[in-house]
Design a protein that fits this description.
It comes from Streptomyces anulatus (Streptomyces chrysomallus). Keywords: Repressor, Transcription, Transcription regulation. It holds the Pfam family HTH_DeoR. The chain is mostly helical. It folds into two domains: 59 residues, Orthogonal Bundle (Arc Repressor Mutant, subunit A); 43 residues, no CATH class. The chain has six helices and three strands; from the N terminus they run αβααββααα. The radius of gyration is 24 Å and the shape is rod-shaped.
């Protein structure tokens, strides 16, 4: 089996099982562990798998959050409505502590500066 074919199969196995490990793949494909490591490194560089100690996991299983700009754009109108409604509930001469988040950031931006 050629490297591209093996890598395609490694990717399929990783997506089905959620992870792959070097020693199992070496045994399955009857190649050395170093060959599997090179395959995993190539798949990692291509952004298809993420190398972890002893193997790899599919990129989709990492659970990374979208960046702030993406999260801020989701449901922007609703976030603005929530911010306006929350602003109306704030005391005129009081203090408020605002936690992190894209909705609360809109509230913080709407609070008038004296």
């Amino acid at each position: 089996m050629y490297a591209p074919e093996r890598q395609q199969e490694i990717l399929r196995i990783a997506q089905e099982s959620g992870r792959v490990d070097v020693l199992s793949l070496a045994e399955e494909f009857q190649v050395t562990a170093e060959t599997v490591r090179r395959d995993l490194k190539a798949l990692d560089r291509a952004g298809l798998l993420r190398r972890v100690h002893g193997g790899a996991i599919p990129v989709g299983r990492l659970g990374f959050e979208p960046d702030l700009a993406e999260r801020d754009a989701v449901a922007a109108d609703e976030k603005d409505r929530i911010a306006r409604a929350a602003l109306a509930e704030l005391p005129a001469d009081g203090n408020v502590i605002v936690d992190a988040g894209t909705t609360t950031a809109r509230l913080a931006a709407a609070v008038p500066v004296d």
